[in-house]
Specification:
Distance between the termini of chain A: 40 Å
Strand content of chain B: 15-25%
Helix content of chain A: 25-40%
Largest sheet of chain B: 7 strands, mixed
Oligomer: heterodimer
Shape of chain A: globular
Structural class of chain B: alpha/beta
Order of helices and strands of chain A: EEEHEHEHHHHEHEHEEHH
Number of helices of chain B: 7
Order of helices and strands of chain B: HEHEHEEEHHEEHEEEEEH
CATH topology of the largest domain in chain B: Rossmann fold
Strand order of the largest sheet of chain A: 5-6-7-3-8-9
Strand content of chain A: 15-25%
Number of strands of chain A: 9
CATH architecture of the largest domain in chain B: 3-Layer(aba) Sandwich
CATH class of the largest domain in chain B: Alpha Beta
Distance between the termini of chain B: 68 Å
CATH superfamily of the largest domain in chain B: Bacterial phosphonate metabolism protein PhnH
Number of strands of chain B: 12
Helix content of chain B: 25-40%
Radius of gyration of chain B: 20 Å
Strand order of the largest sheet of chain B: 1-9-8-5-4-2-3
Number of helices of chain A: 10
Largest sheet of chain A: 6 strands, mixed
């Protein structure tokens, strides 16, 4: 049986700068890494295509500056793309390139079909509002106007991510980094989004909390069947979570395949270096 | 070249600028129109926005009423009244029905306004989304994208913390089903008076340099959740100690010596009118 990807990305490009005749056709040998020495344009993401299938976790690894976070921001509409297409396989959106939608429609996709967990909880949470309020914000944005219902959903989610309920009315700024991250995950999950983006979720957390958060993500994926894109520079995280992995370098995909295959038998010189640098 | 002396405090250029913004505000109900706010002879935050609207609107035959939190005789109301009268010579009044132009701070009069009247409200904080988002360009974008989850979130937080919406004043409203607007710090009690109001309501924020409006017969709906419906302040079982009115907005006064709590009309001209009408009746009956 042929399976339809839930998220299909084609030739996504993101550049910072106008580009010039020297770098127009994106020849690798004409660029210094992803940077044009003539006009100073940075090609953060260079014509990336990928598929995300229902229920799978897709890992993206790469060194810092390789464009993995920019790719996520483009997909989540945090920043505009230079060119490219993305298709989401839901009844309402099949066949439409979501990058061409109006900002209102994009916001609706963010509120209904997407969840996002940022590396830094400051970006995903309102630090001066209660944890319940933070989760409710996403529900409100999706059109819910029933306080009782939203409070119940928020409580259930906070319980799922092991936040003690007696602290639910507290503001996330009083929480530790790991707790903030878990509140963020609860918020991202509040609308049962079919697609979840996780950007370096465990970076900066200590090991035991890291394990906690990873466990949680794995559990959520198993129970709810949510498709996820997990960005990390930590191969251990990718090995534990991802079914398939994409390796990015200088804004390009240089290697992709099943995670164990990529990690056990890396083909590209950079991937080999990456895998053998693993402590 | 000779120019005619300008009527009222403003030069023609200023009046034109403020009127232009006002027209745009009326055309887009609830939308905050930026305008070139003038330097005024009163301090910012003391009603410069309302005063500028009043001075751009006022004509020789107009009758002006100024209220400060329901009172006609408080310092702020009196000084604004004096300023306008001294620079225009128009007639001023305390009677709501007599006035053509009513400038008010934080109250809408108890007596329903008519289509021949204009209500000017002074606004300290025109942006209902400011508590959730400090950046102006971000709130502008939120308005344009119809993204009001922040305004709802504030109410949600209050319900979670206090079990009810705790907006003492300035409870946000949907205007014409599109823009969420700060109705200026009027009590929730006055919010329903804005709905389908016969009078034009103009709101001016001098410090924040914004003018917005509720045109006559416009739908104004207070934000409320399904399970926590909007409710005005309740004065159940209380009445004004002076005129005996119930179903009006009452001030709660606590006697410092006895600790006794008494209630009194917040709208002083309404209270006075009630007293006068009952007094007159007494006089008439004693004559008969």
């Amino acid at each position: 049986m042929h399976e339809e990807p839930i998220l299909k990305v084609r030739n996504l490009r993101k550049q910072f700068g106008p580009g010039c005749s020297h770098c127009a056709n994106l020849d690798s040998d004409r660029l210094e890494k992803n940077y044009c020495t003539v006009c100073g344009t940075v090609y953060a993401v260079r014509d990336v295509s990928l598929d995300l299938y229902p229920g799978e976790i897709l890992g993206i690894v790469g060194e810092s500056g390789s464009g993995k976070s920019t790719l996520m921001q483009c997909l989540y509409f945090d920043t505009d793309v230079a060119s490219g297409e993305a298709y989401i396989h839901t009844p309402a959106l099949t066949g439409t390139n979501v990058f061409e939608l109006s900002s209102q429609q994009k916001r609706s996709i963010r509120n209904h079909d997407y969840g996002m967990v940022y590396q830094n909880p400051v970006h995903g949470l309102k630090m001066n509002f209660s944890s319940v309020g933070n989760i409710a914000e996403k529900l409100i944005a999706a059109g819910n106007r029933n306080v009782g219902e939203m409070e119940a959903t928020s409580k259930r989610l906070l319980e799922n991510v092991h936040i003690p309920l007696h602290r639910m009315k507290e503001e996330p700024r009083n929480f530790s980094g790991g707790m903030q991250q878990r509140v963020q995950i609860a918020k991202a999950l509040s609308n049962n989004p079919p697609i979840l983006f996780l950007d370096e979720v465990t970076t900066g957390l200590d090991l035991s909390v890291q394990a906690n958060v990873l466990d949680l993500i794995k559990k959520i994926q198993r129970e709810l069947g949510i498709s996820m894109i997990v960005v990390s520079h930590d191969l251990a995280v990718i090995r534990m979570l991802a079914d398939r992995t994409i390796v990015m370098l200088n804004g390009e995909i240089i290697e992709q395949g099943l995670t164990d295959q990529v990690l056990e038998d890396p083909q590209h010189a950079y991937t080999q270096q990456l895998v053998y640098s693993l402590l | 070249m000779r120019t005619n002396t300008h009527f009222a405090f403003f030069d023609e250029g200023s009046k034109k600028e403020i009127r232009r913004a006002t027209l745009k505000a009326v055309a887009i109900p609830g939308y905050q129109v930026p305008f070139a706010s003038r330097e005024m002879p009163i301090a910012r935050g003391w009603g410069t926005g309302g005063l500028q609207l009043t001075l751009s609107l006022i004509g020789k035959t107009d009758v002006l009423k100024v209220i400060d939190q329901g009172a006609d005789e408080s310092v702020n109301a009196v000084s604004i009244k004096k300023l306008v009268q001294e620079t225009t010579g128009v007639q001023v009044t305390d009677q709501t029905e007599e006035a053509d132009l009513i400038q008010s701070r934080h109250r809408i009069p108890e007596i329903p306004l008519t289509k021949d009247q204009i209500l000017v409200l002074q606004v300290p904080m025109p942006e209902p989304l400011r508590p959730v988002e400090a950046r102006e360009y971000a709130t502008k974008r939120m308005h344009s994208e119809d993204d009001y989850s922040g305004a709802w979130l504030m109410l949600f937080e209050q319900i979670v913390k206090y079990g009810k919406t705790a907006t003492a004043a300035d409870h946000p409203v949907y205007v014409n089903g599109r823009y969420v607007m700060a109705p200026s710090p009027i009590p929730r009690f006055d919010n329903p008076k804005m709905h389908q109001s016969e009078a034009l309501i103009l709101l001016g924020a001098g410090r924040e340099k914004k003018i917005y409006a509720v045109p006559p017969y416009t739908a104004v709906e207070s934000l409320a959740f399904e399970d926590y419906p909007f409710a005005v302040e309740s004065f159940e079982g209380q009445e004004c100690r002076l005129c005996g009115s119930a179903h009006v907005f009452l001030d709660e006064l606590i006697d410092q010596k006895t600790g006794e709590t008494v209630y009194q009309c917040n709208d002083t001209s309404y209270c006075m009118e009630q007293l006068n009408s009952t007094e007159k009746a007494e006089v008439e009956s004693s004559y008969a």
